[in-house]
Amino acid sequence: MDLRGGNFRALRTAILAWLFPGLGHISLGLVMQGLLLGLMVWGLFFTGAYLGGHLYFLSTLDAGILSRIFWFCNVGNGLLFIVAGYAGVAIQDSPMLQFSEYGNIFLVASGLLNYYLMLDAFDTAAGRKS
Hints:
Elements: H1 6-19, H2 23-27, H3 31-50, H4 65-75, H5 79-87, H6 100-126
Helix pairs in contact: 1-6, 3-6, 4-6
């Protein structure tokens, strides 16, 4: 991939979109779209944490293939994932909570949605999409 001109802009936009959900679209001038889509990711993430969901980190990858898939999905949350890890949010497995499995799915869905938003912002910045 040639990183001159538009492709460097597209790569920078994708990194911004991954780090902070919605920021990629905002940096492209799509402010309302970026705010709404970013709020959806943030809402899913915080709902999942509130329901007792569990974030998967590299230290928990010995639990099997499913924990590796969940880790990949959780990394999609960007800074939300990193800050939550340092703050101690959603790192304790809470199987006794009534809705903890739903919380896990919300956390996974927020990461996957942010991956999609990152790719959408990249394609828009690269001129593949209007």
